[in-house]
Task: structure prediction
Amino acid sequence: MDADLRTLRERLAEVSDLHRAMGVLGWDQRVTMPPLGTPARAEALATLGRIAHERFVDDELGRLLERLRPLEESLPYDSDEASLIRVTRRDWEKARKVPAELRAEMTRAAAQGHQVWVEARARSDFAAFLPTLERNLELRRRYVECFEWEDSPYTPLLDDYEPFMTTTEVAEVFGVIRPALAELVREAPRVEAGFLRGRFAPELQRAFAERVLATFGFTEGAWRLDTTAHPFCTSFSNRDVRLTTRYHETGLESLWSTLHEAGHGLYAHGIADSLQRTPLAGAPSLGLNESQSRTWENLVGRSRAFWTCWYEPLRETFPEQLGDVALDAFVAAINRAEPGLIRVEADETTYSLHIILRFELERRLIEGTLAPRDLPEAWNAGMRELLGVEVPDDAHGVLQDVHWSAGSFGYFPTYALGNVISLQLWAAVREAIPDVEEQMAAGELHELSAWLRDNLYALGRKLTPKETIERLTGTAGIDPGPYLAYLRDKLAALPAGA
Amino acid sequence: MDADLRTLRERLAEVSDLHRAMGVLGWDQRVTMPPLGTPARAEALATLGRIAHERFVDDELGRLLERLRPLEESLPYDSDEASLIRVTRRDWEKARKVPAELRAEMTRAAAQGHQVWVEARARSDFAAFLPTLERNLELRRRYVECFEWEDSPYTPLLDDYEPFMTTTEVAEVFGVIRPALAELVREAPRVEAGFLRGRFAPELQRAFAERVLATFGFTEGAWRLDTTAHPFCTSFSNRDVRLTTRYHETGLESLWSTLHEAGHGLYAHGIADSLQRTPLAGAPSLGLNESQSRTWENLVGRSRAFWTCWYEPLRETFPEQLGDVALDAFVAAINRAEPGLIRVEADETTYSLHIILRFELERRLIEGTLAPRDLPEAWNAGMRELLGVEVPDDAHGVLQDVHWSAGSFGYFPTYALGNVISLQLWAAVREAIPDVEEQMAAGELHELSAWLRDNLYALGRKLTPKETIERLTGTAGIDPGPYLAYLRDKLAALPAGA
Result:
């Protein structure tokens, strides 16, 4: 049995190394690669991906997992070993269900779709994008057929990003927050924020962001921050974490984007050493991962407590732009709710409404109750209903996001679920660290960072998302209560009128 | 046959992709990786290396090569296809001869040896390094036993870097240049060069180097230049070339180091598209590769013609340091010959003497006529004889180079062979482009760059080193004549006394 476990670990380490290598190739492609390197990089990534997949779906791995069942059952559920066998078995069974040639077609269609989408968006031409959308939907219907599901064909797609969650459960959560958010947005006061749209020198933004990040609890020499066109975070071990960001000359939004990626980075950084080079070295779901980027971006990075410490340093960095702006006015501005057209520019309150619209539409597309050609009209009607805005063209509407061009249906909900989960976990944080706000106000984030690491990040994927949330909060499942209470309190604290 | 050729290409493309991925991981490790990422990176590199090796030495590849023999024989010798089959067969046969566990031991010993060497050099403690040296020698003796050789057990080691060349042939070349160089160095005039050791702001050096590199013939968007501790060049296709350099605050030597790496980069950049993702995508030998780094560093970058164009821009960049220095004085300073202790700081004339010493010593170590413990004494005697310098300690003597700590015996000669070959090929350049000097003086390097690309770089590894040299020069083999004539002329042109 020990020999089998050792063999399992060796095989999984090899697959993990291949994925790590793909991560490095991907980071390099987005951060440093000369543009003409693209075709060769695509070939190298395809080769590594194919080898990693072949090695993972290997029959022998299945036999190993079968032989290890008695060991798994003899060990505590949340032990590294039992979790490794259990989680790997589920991954293996899922991976085996999809024929190699369908997988390859999906990958090819995603690459082609991306190029079509870039051009269609540039010309705001939905008709040009429609065949791509239809092709991706058809491939997803074939993908869904590989799995069993009960409530909706959307569930197997969701499972790739939010394992064990059903479409029905998502719809229930969104059914609660949808009307509540729409009402909050309608009633939100207008807040003066013009001073956030001045000129902010990128090198000063960068220096300030690095000062802040230095307090987040990263081990020195285990991470770095680079610039890129579309910010992301990746890691090639818990000691090699790569944050990326983009500085805008005319706004400070990069700061929160950086704190957001830092949240993802702290998750990767905190995964236990014992889980490295195994399938357990990750977050249980995208929603849980996102809960932590939102925690560091919003619950920390937009809190009055945090800025009690950091506003003076920021004002000293940008005296011309912020010299006349008081702390309260700054905190109000970065917490305001203001309906807009673009998801990635949305504030904390309106953001989930953008997501709910996408979830509702992509669910209907997959279930076949919305024809792809009717999507723009449905989009525009949804924006009117949920956010009260008129969509001027498809570039600022249905064509704005990359996800559908790559066939990533089921991904969107995790953004809003992350928002919801972040508040459930924050309640646990406040219980464990009653003076967390005082600590933030003193610029002290180490206890917070260490608590999240030890109680959440270190677990990796050992538990399911629900089990993970339950371990921290005592409540199984996703509860929108704390999230809505947080937004209500926040908006109520804004100065009325401006 | 066509299907076999297609299968061969597919298998080799896969191995090539793995090597390219390793290249990216290596570049990232040396240029950007946070230091604590080291252990995970070593694991990932080991996994990729193992998979690449396994896939290359596969029995089925040998059967494919055997079945393709008739096709190979039916095609012109230098066709892409015949060359691919022939060169791959030699690589495959060589790779199969070394047992996997010896290869693994060599890799492990190299990694351990590096750490021991770093510490031994820091303390100038040869005794601490001796066991590592002995271990590496023992492993190389076992390695040599895997091959057949006639003149010396050193020849199979040499073959890994300079294929098809024998120890005897190297000794013959070095036998000619050894006394000639020693005499040139003894009689070289002393030249004033103090102005090269002023303060030169790194950002200005970088900007100047980039202006120069922009004229070298690289396609825009197919390369980049970064900083690192130990400059190197790597590439992940002919459209993704990475140069690295290091700027010194108190000297201009980084410029020639950059031009040197650019020469390697142009080689990789010029390899034909049709050879990409095959074992032919490389230089025929390290000597030939080095001949081109030396061409761009020295034959271009230290020539009076080149500086006729570039000296004014350089002087405008550094008016304080060079304002009073005339072109002639500058050209004399960068071409002076001055014996020193350290190879990597050696000038163009003394450099090959450092190499000849290392060749003679490592050959004797491998042949068993020099005991490892007697190495420092032999080193110091050689430095006295060849360069007329006294070695103060082993850190500035036998411990200065990394190569032996990694067991890289047989590598050193390629540096000096590169110097020699560069002049043989340069004679062909002058014949093909009679006004190359006038072009250089006008800042025009495109014809030179394109000629070398089309006549040399594009060939990749299709021909052997000798065949490659013969194709360009009409002479088979390595002829030290042009190299010695070049150095004699250069030193004769220096102002006598200073």
